[in-house]
Specification:
It is found in: Cell membrane. The chain is α/β, with parallel strands linked by helices and 279 residues long. The radius of gyration is 21 Å and the shape is globular. The chain has 11 helices and 9 strands. Bound molecules: adenosine-5'-diphosphate and magnesium ion (MG).
Length: 279
């Protein structure tokens, strides 16, 4: 599998920053990978995404060193989609990201229809992006980022401003992009309950350094480290580890279930085998 993005010893200090906000980041993303990025507020998640997108150092004042290379196009969606909107309609909003690329009107129209279908917003073309629900707004922002068919999609806390319904819409879209489009996605988020369900790989950033970088299963088995870094350990993971500690499950033979459905299946098989009795 080929690398779509690679950072090598990337360091960054904002002009007025007292210390390095990115302190020697080495990271490579492989095609088709869906990666979760977690870390406390102020740890450097947004700054890292800006560096990946080349907006740091291009659009910010400060001190940069290291190397960042991206193979192909990249799309980025920021935390609050509304601040990015400039179009009066959803169609205009998405067209804006395409018109700069010299495509003809018919091709633009077709592409808009395609990306709206992809994010589940067919029929929304003539709506005002400002009048949509939070989840719909975020999906319009994602549609704009997807319009020019990027190889890599960066999402910065895409659900932090959303209600549970909106968050569900956005997470189910991310899963669809993973499963149906095989997209390479990096999502910065505090929502570890959801990340644990679909991420292949997890990164933990603390004080501008990547302190954990491993497959999601291994990552969520490090409960003590996650606790120490103030990262929320998903309930499913806590339940699994409690059952391992109690001797009901064996960590060596039974991997941690990712979803409630997986836990239910595991539980039913234990009941069938008589390893767990229902009182
Ligand atoms: N434009 C800026 N100028 C100076 N310092 C900044 C700027 N943006 C962020 N920082 C600082 O960089 C650090 C990392 O911020 P950020 O990347 O936004 O973290 P996160 O996204 O993980 O919350 C914080 O200490 C923050 O105050
Ligand atoms: Mg941030």
């Amino acid at each position: 599998m080929s690398s779509v993005l690679s950072l090598s010893d990337v360091c960054w200090r904002y002009e007025d920053g007292a210390s390095w906000t990115l302190a020697g980041i080495d990271l490579s993303l492989t095609e088709g990978e869906v990666v979760g990025l977690v870390g406390l507020s102020g740890a450097g998640k947004t700054t890292l995404l800006l560096a990946m997108a080349g907006l740091i150092p291009a659009n910010y004042a400060g001190q940069f060193s290291g190397r960042c290379s991206v193979q192909g196009e990249l799309g980025i969606v920021f935390q609050d989609p509304e601040t990015q909107f400039i179009g009066l309609t959803v169609e205009e909003e998405i067209a804006f990201s395409l018109e700069n690329r010299g495509q003809d009107d018919r091709a633009i129209e077709r592409r808009i229809e395609d990306v709206l279908a992809l994010v589940g917003l067919s029929g929304f073309a003539s709506r005002s992006p400002f009048e949509l629900s939070g989840g719909e707004k975020q999906r319009v922002a994602i549609a704009s980022a997807l319009a020019h068919a990027p190889k890599l999609l960066l999402l910065d806390e895409p659900t932090s401003e959303l209600d549970p319904k909106g968050a569900r819409e956005v997470f189910s879209l991310i899963r669809r992009l993973k499963e149906e489009e095989r997209m390479t996605i990096l999502v910065a988020s505090h929502a570890t309950e959801e990340l644990a369900q679909f991420c292949d790989r997890m990164l933990l950033i603390a004080d501008g350094a990547i302190v954990m970088d491993m497959p999601a299963d291994a990552f969520f088995s490090q409960v003590a480290s996650l606790d120490a870094h103030g990262i929320h350990v998903p309930d499913m993971v806590r339940l699994y580890h409690a059952l391992c500690t109690e001797g009901v499950l064996d960590e060596k033979t039974t991997p941690c279930p990712r979803t409630v459905e997986d836990m239910l299946t595991l539980w039913q098989s234990l009941v069938r085998k008589g390893e767990v009795a229902i009182p």
